[in-house]
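pasting for the record
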Amino acid sequence: MDAATLKAKFRGMIKSTTIWFNALLLATIPYVDSIIDAVTSNMPIVSQWLSPNMVQNVAVFILVGNILLRAKTNKGLEDK
């Protein structure tokens, strides 16, 4: 991949709402435990279905997978 292609892909990433959305979610991962604690303390029935570690691991998998899938879509980021 040459420099021009990489530069075009980077510009496309900056314009991609999907990339920004997932980057924002990825940035919230350190706060997942606090969010889960707040939700489970206010809605006890949720605590039987979710554990903080499970939620955090699933969130990382989904976010990284989503970003990788977005980079592989038919419309390349350089075409944005």
